[in-house]
Amino acid sequence: MSSDRPLPAISCKGVWQVYGANAGHELKRALADANGNSIEASRLLKERGLVPAVQDVSFDVHEGEVFVIMGLSGSGKSTLIRTISRLVQGTAGTIEINGEDILTADKRRLIELRRTKLGMVFQHFGLFPHMSVLDNVGFPLKMQGVDRAARRERALDVLKLVGLSGRESAYPRELSGGQRQRVGIARALAVNPDLWFLDEPYSALDPLIRRQLQDEFLKLQEGLQKTSVFITHDITEALKLADRIAIMRDGRIVQIGTPDEIIVNPVDDYVREFTRDVPKGRYSHVSSMMGMPDTLPAMPDDPKIEADMTIDDALASCMSLYQPVPVWGADGKMAGIVHPGQLASALQAERS
Hints:
It is found in: Cell inner membrane. GO terms for molecular function: ABC-type quaternary ammonium compound transporting activity; ATP binding; ATP hydrolysis activity. One of its GO terms (biological process) is amino acid transport. By secondary structure, the chain is an alpha/beta fold. It folds into two domains: about 60-95 and about 100-280, P-loop containing nucleotide triphosphate hydrolases (Rossmann fold, 3-Layer(aba) Sandwich); about 280-350, no CATH class. The chain has helices at about 25-35, 40-45, 75-85, 105-115, 135-145, 150-160, 175-190, 205-225, 235-240, 260-265, 270-275, 280-285, 310-320, 340-350, and strands spanning about 10-20, 50-60, 65-70, 90-95, 100, 120, 195-200, 225-230, 245-250, 250-255, 325-330, 335-340. The strands form three sheets. The chain has a six-stranded mixed β-sheet, with helices on both faces. It has a four-stranded antiparallel β-sheet with strand order 2-1-4-5, with helices on both faces. The protein has a two-stranded antiparallel ribbon with strand order 11-12. Helix 5 (about 135-145) packs across helix 6 (about 150-160) and helix 6 (about 150-160) crosses helix 7 (about 175-190).
């Protein structure tokens, strides 16, 4: 029966990445010995001296979605994104991009995909030191055979998009870390890719620059609606950027969910530990906890709470209805008054 549902931008089914001699053969043998149980097969592989870095991973990424993969160091997240983008050859499974299984794609097809469909940004900028900013950004277009005038025009457009107008003639050594990463992002966007892979692109930058680039990423995404797979080990970055988050542990995905689902309903203690120190009011939304009872209670006040409000914003709106309250000094005398809304506003200003 046919379905009107669109194909996912990326579909991974039973993906394995195993390192060691005869990895493909050994994986088949381990799965056979384990009667198809992937956890037992992983244990057998380790016993036999192999490293199952990615284990039986399955998920879909929807068109225009920011899909964040996070986990601790060694969890397999960077190996997974390299496998999805075919920077390394997967051991088993299927990885389809717009319905095409790229694990079976030959070298020529892979080159074409990387030149036309896939944009990649990594933690280490990978800029050519002998090239200007303009030439670095235009390099992927040069590889496509685009003429010099068109390369220049497109490079100038994307440099403006990432806030680097006026720095076209500079060289990487003359740029700050944040500016170099912007060049990397502009280079990835130059070919107008369908898919965008970002492997911890901001982790080498200081916190202030990281926040600025995160905000810029969200602005770019709002305008471009690129399908993105974003790797991070930072839960606050994941919650800020993601439509959905996949959390990895020891090569396996333990939970996939929206930021609200990860915060409100962690599947186990491992996920719960990630979110333990997260200010939940800043990232979870009213929609994750509201309900519609059969009989509505009396509600004399209406602070105009909306389903997509964060809990912090909703509480601030509620507090705006409250009356001023006294503040008492150490001597037991009233020292002044404060409105609850002032407290909420101060807290929000501190967090913004």
